[in-house]
Amino acid sequence: MSETSPNTLQYRTDGPDDAPVLVLGPSLGTTWHMWDRQIPELTRQWRVVRFDLPGHGGAPAAPAPSVGELADRLLATLDELGVQRFGYAGCSIGGAIGADLALRAPHRLAALVLVAASPRFGTADEFRQRGAIVRANGLEPMARSAPERWFTPGFAAAQPAIVEWAVQMVRTTDPGCYSAACEALAAFDVRAELGRIGVPTLVLVGSEDRVTGPAEARTLVAGIPDARLAVVPGASHLAPVEQPAAVTDLLIRHLSSAWQPAADSSTGMAAPVPPPAPIPAPAPGPAPAGYGPPPVGYTPAPAPYPQAPTPAPAGYGYPGPIQPTGPTSPTGPTSPTGPTSPTGPTGPVAPTGPTGPFAPPAPAPVDLGAPVPAPAPAPVDLGAPAPVAEAEGPAEPPAQPVPLAPPLDTPVPSAPLVPPASEATGAEPEARRPDPYETGRPDAYEAGIRVRREVLGDAHVDAATEGADAFSADFQELITRYAWGEVWTRDGLDRRTRSAVTLTALVAGGQLEELAFHTRAALRGGMTPAEIREVLIHCAVYCGVPAANAAFRVAGRVVREETGAGGSGAGEDGGGEADARATYGE
């Protein structure tokens, strides 16, 4: 295992040091051990680098706020290893990292495999709510539901030890890093950019995946110019675990045929990739129970997964020694408490790569001593009259030349005040929206609608804007432009602090409908139920006990809806309020 800094990721390597490099990325809530059963075959041709997400598998808890930040940390890690070009395969959020690399660092990718991936994972509201649940209740709810999301029912019933291993991986993850990863997925959306991915891509999905299924996979294939689809029968979200032989075979076939050699041979990757080595047939015997039917032509691989639940060490996401269910490879993975692979070097590596994750190519040499001719300015006659557009009616005399600046001792005559046309005629002034370019400021509406969606959620904003009519449309634009585009975008306070201030103001004003909106927004924006409770208790002192009593009823209901937590609000009456209407509110 490597030692990591906050701007790199925990990693391990397996395979020959002089082989082309293949990087494997994990799914949210898992560790690099999800790829254990692919390692024996992949290391015959590649030097495999696996990494853990922050706070996963005992990695340092340094939350990453975006998929781009995770990709930057991965590139910094590879820079330290001296790896400039590599193939990449990632599952779920690991696939999102791969897509980001293909968009921002395509020169470093030789081939790409996206497993159980999507150009946009669900909706932003879903992942922000998941983050709110983790902040409120910890990771136990996520751990209990992981087997249902990751495996088919038949596999989960037949492989209880693997199910327990998966649950332990989630339980030992840092909650703050898990919530940050949820926020990263909530903001991830590359649907409009798929056409820019030029790396040969395999999109691999389990036929029974209910998280990111075949529909999302087909969206990727339709958008990426050089992409093909592989659907693995009898597999759900963690296809590399549930159908390891099929996934391994698909990886080898794609990476061997699509790999684009690097131009720089210093990394040992310019040489042509050797043809795939034949996969030895396993010893005769029945297939492990619970495995779905493999694709035609696939050869089942040994199953070095645990067969009995084993408690995981504290802070680590792997349940201990692996007990095979069939013949195993002598190089198969073992417990993290002992050596994890006889072929993989581990340990800290001194930084040798570029200091930044996206080092630009060296510029062409420029002769700094050569004179650069400046363009000659066009002649301008400052005394010439400005052209006047033609208009109906008598022509006005041409404008007189105006000096650039009058002498300091020359009095400047004041111009006569001309009343607006509306005052002169008595007509009503025509409403006119200020042009942002006239004021020198960008239009705040676009920034406002973006922040409004991030804070309140897409569903709420869609209901508010779609429900607006001729009577309320101007009001919707006003709050989007000024409340969200001018105030919520200021740098002086972070969003959690602004949420706390907003809750206080709404309690003081008795605005219970708006309080419900913003309690939900505060939870999804990073505030915990305990912090919201403290804000309302503080309001009881400075806004009055009756106001806080009503606020506790509203906020308590929202907390229960968002987090699934028990308990009740602090109101004396125990009553509730009507649901808020989004048409006229925020």
What do you see in this structure?
- The protein is an alpha/beta fold and 586 residues long.
- The chain is 38% helix and 7% strand.
- The chain contains 20 helices and seven strands.
- It has helices spanning 39-42, 67-80, 93-104, 124-137, 140-150, 153-158, 160-171, 175-187, 214-223, 239-242, 244-258, 421-425, 436-439, 445-456, 458-466, 473-487, 495-509, 512-524, 529-542, 545-563; strands at residues 11-14, 21-25, 47-51, 86-91, 109-115, 201-206, 227-232.
- A seven-stranded mixed beta sheet has the order 1-3-2-4-5-6-7, sandwiched between helices.
- α1 links the parallel β2 and β3 (47-51).
- The radius of gyration is 31 Å and the shape is elongated.
- The two termini are 49 Å apart.
- Residues 264-305, 307-370, 378-395, 402-410, 412-425, 427-431 and 566-586 have low confidence and may be disordered.
Summary tags:
alpha/beta, 20 helices, 7% strand
Give a brief rundown of this model.
By secondary structure, the chain is α/β, with parallel strands linked by helices. The chain has 20 helices and 7 strands.
- Average pLDDT works out at 74
Shape: elongated
Instruction: Specify the helix fraction band.
Output: 25-40%
Largest sheet report: 7 strands, mixed
Amount of beta strand: 5-15%
Low-confidence stretches: 264-305, 307-370, 378-395, 402-410, 412-425, 427-431, 566-586
Order of helices and strands: EEHEHEHEHHHHHEHEHHHHHHHHHHH
Count of runs of 4 or more consecutive helical residues: 20
**Spatial order of strands in the largest sheet:** 1-3-2-4-5-6-7
- Give a count of the beta strands, DSSP E runs of length 2 or more: 7
Structural class: alpha/beta
Radius of gyration over all CA atoms, rounded: 31 Å
Distance between the termini: 49 Å
